[in-house]
Amino acid sequence: QVQLQESGPGLVKPSGTLSLTCVVYGVPISSSHWWNWVRQPPGKGLEWIGEIYHSGSTNYNPSLKSRVTMSADKSKNQFSLNLTSVTAADTAVYYCARDRFFDQWGQGTLVTVSS
Amino acid sequence: DIQMTQFPSSLSASVGDTVILTCRASQGISNYLAWFQQKPGKAPKSLIFAASILQSGVPSKFSGSGSGTDFTLTISSLQPEDFATYYCQQYDNYPWTFGHGTKVEIK
Question: How many CA atoms lie within 13 A of A112 on its CB side?
Answer without folding.
Answer: 4
